[in-house]
Amino acid sequence: MRRIAVVTSGGDAPGMNAAVRAATRVGIGAGIEVFGVRRGYVGLIENDIVPLTVRDVSGVLQLGGTFLGTARSEEFKTDKAQHKAIENLQRRSIHGLIVIGGNGSQMGSYALWEKGFPVVGVASTVDNDLYGSDISIGTDTALNIIIESTDRIKTTAESHTRAFLIEVMGRHYGYLALISGIAGGAEVVVTPEFEVDPATIADELRSAYERGKKYALVVVTDGAKNNAEEIARYFKDHGEEIGFELRVTILGHVQRGGPPTAFDRLLATRLGAAAVNLLLDGNGGKLVGWIGGQVAYTSLEDVVSNTKVLDVNLWQLAQILAE
Ligand code: F6P
Fold first, then answer.
1. pTM listed for this prediction
2. Which of 45, 54, 55, 107 is the most buried (most CB within 10 A)?
């Protein structure tokens, strides 16, 4: 294999640039040429592929987002688009691809691999919902942003003796809400796996005040059935009987922005480097992730056919700590 390409795909995550940088420099160091695909799978379909030199990846280690650009591509789910992508790569004599991204992106990786193209995935998503990695690129940064926000909200909540709700990312997986609920000290955590209805939330918050707390905090996953909108509506409609207000902050895309933490830079660097070595060893069809404190390899087939499960013990711990 003399030429490989790197693509960042799906939702951006802080640390993606560090992974591209590592893949580029490790590849060039091993004597091969490295290319970057712009705008995720869209660029792969549209043949938007550029050579990367060691200097092209200077100064990106500390930057959030992805300098290559990214996209969510519906078209790439079709056989036609996948064949086009392979054709575009092969026409440039590129015979290996590294896909840095989350669930949707790794489904794309698996589709290319099944069509006979050597692909290695790198686990990257703030949601941390990718099977095959304890923690993914971007998750630690998002958590730190959430914790800083909860800390800040708590000071104003305490000053006014108020209840607050913070909605965080995660979509179908409640990792960010649960972990930030524990590390940020929430009274109630609501996730798609562990839904709490708005009436129970009101009871829990009232009980927190009765136990002598000066403020109360709810952390909710954006993909929960009882998300910020639903809970806020309930509090508005039942304001008089509840007897206290709930202020809502939706953190949104700020969680995905800004510089990666030291942990994410290092994780991304190690995973990006390992992905190149895997491709060069002729081991396509795998996701490079982080399991048990080290780089780990999981078949893309297992990645796309398994769902990560939230730790019920941590959920129970969150309940006890809320006392
Ligand atoms: O998958 C990452 C994520 O940030 C989710 O947590 C969130 O629900 C979604 O992406 C937001 O989607 P978009 O990037 O399309 O705004």
1. 0.97
2. 45
